[in-house]
Structure formats: structure tokens, C-alpha cells
Amino acid sequence: MPHVPLRRLLTFASLPFLLLALLIPASAANAAVAPDAAVAVPAAVRSCSSATPVASRPTLNYKDTGSCVKLMQQLLLNKAYKIGASAPTGNYLSGTKAAVLLFQKNNRLVADAVVGPKTWAVLASSKTPKFTSPVYLTFDDCPSGSTSTAARTASNTTLKTARDLGMHLRLYVTGDCLKAKRFDVAYARQMGHTVCSHTNTHPELTKLTLSQIKAELQIPGLTTNCARPPYGAVNTTVRTAFSQLGYRLDLWNVDTNDWRGKTQTEVTNYVIANARPGDVVLMHMNHKAYNSSALKAIKAGLSKKSVNIK
């Protein structure tokens, strides 16, 4: 055998591996070093019963089936959650998934639609948690209507319904609205609601001077100690104006975005799904949820979650 240099032997020997490397897609080559990613769990039949200890119940995932799914669905129904069917089906589908996500969110669990030990434990509890902190429903601006009389009359009907439902609304009205006689402050307060300033002409207060801000906040004919800055726009000057006037600065932490053209159902469903004890919900009197039927829907939906409305 003729003498072949060692370097050439190594080159020949490496050739198949080099060719193989060229044929492997870059994504496959990188897979070995890529970080771990969430892997979908295959659907499975999960079996258990109400007699199965909570700690021994299997984890349920979307699209699972079986008696354990039925048990989970019944527990959700017992707590007034809608699963997309009137009775347990044993199929973990989209309706049940939505109910699980909402249940997890309402109970401050990780909202991942996976029914594991923590979710099972809360589901299996005999009582729905009772929260003492209420949700505050607030409405800004001015009632809508074809005429001032129509707007005021519709508003008064809404205010009376709220009173009858045991709901205390916070209403932030503009001076322009009162000038147009579209809102009855005296009647609102008679019905037990709080009426505050939302400025005279609804400007962005952060663009005004201190004296201009104070003039905007003080609405002629409205005696109050609370106000809400339009758009939630606040800076040091705005805070100084509130302090000098002795006004409480009221903002919010749940924005329904009702002004974006949402339907009444979209607004009420958003409030029911997202409002938690202690939250301040922002809506507007000139949009879809300032009426009796919307308030009744919100009241019913939050009551099912054992959430009170202040």
C-alpha cells in the first residue's frame, strides 16, 4: 500500500460528516442548543370522581376527556361559571377553557387553563370566596339624548335603577353638560350617588397653567370635593391645583374603552370579566353602558363571582 500522509487520511475520513452537516437544515442544527420550549400535552382520557382526593386528581389540559373533566365542569357550574353547555359533557373544549381561565383569574391563580393541584383545590372548596372590598363603577362626561330633556330623563331612570339595585355610582360631569341641563345633580345625589367635577370644558389639564386648571375644575353651581382630570392627564401642576382646592384626585384602574364603539354587551362582559374587589371601573355616560339594562347585567355578573359593587 502506498504511503498516504496522515493529514490526507483525516481529510478523507471527515468528508462524510461535512456532507451530512450541509444537508441538515439550520433549524435542526440549532435545535440541540435552543432553550426548552413549552410542549403541547397530548389529549388524554382522565378518570376520577368526587371521592378521589383532590391531591390525587390528574392534571387536566385542553381537549382532555373523561370523568375527571366532567367533575371539573360540574364544579365550575356549581360556582355559576358557564362552560358552553348546560350540563357536564366530559369534553374539555373551548367553552370550558374560557370558564377555567376566568375562574383562575378571579381566584388569583395562574391563568393557563391547566387544571392542576392548585386549581383543583380552589374548585373543590365548598364556598366561593367572599370579598369585602367592592368594585366602584364610575361614569364620566354627559348623558346622551336627542334633547336635553331626553338625556336628563334617561339619566334619571338609570340613576334610580342603580339605587334600586343597591349600586352607588360615581359620576364625573362637565360644566358644559350642566349648562346644557342634560344632567340633574340634585336628583343624582338624592338617589345616593356621588357627583364630582370633570372640568368645565374637558381640556387636557397638563397643558394649562395652575390658575387655568383651578378655573376648569371649579364648575359653577356644583359643590364638590372630588374631581377627575380628563384623559387621566396628571402632572405636578395638576396635583398642586387639586391640593389647593382641597379636591380628591380620582383616577381608575379598569378602563372599558367604551368610547371605541363597543356594544353594550362588550362593555358589560368586559367589566364582569376584569373587575376585581377594590377596582375602579371607567365608563362614560354618553356611551353604551349608562342605562338600566347594562347596570343589571353588571350587577348579576359580578354577584355570581361574589364581588360587591359600591
TrEMBL record:
Biological process per Gene Ontology, one example term: carbohydrate metabolic process
Signal peptide (residue range): 1-28
Keyword Signal: yes
UniProtKB keywords: Signal
InterPro entries attached to this UniProt entry: Glyco_hydro/deAcase_b/a-brl (IPR011330), NODB_dom (IPR002509), Peptidoglycan-bd-like (IPR002477), PGBD-like_sf (IPR036365), PGBDSf (IPR036366), Polysacc_deacetylase_ArnD (IPR050248)
PANTHER family: GLYCOSYL TRANSFERASE-RELATED
Protein name in UniProt: NodB homology domain-containing protein
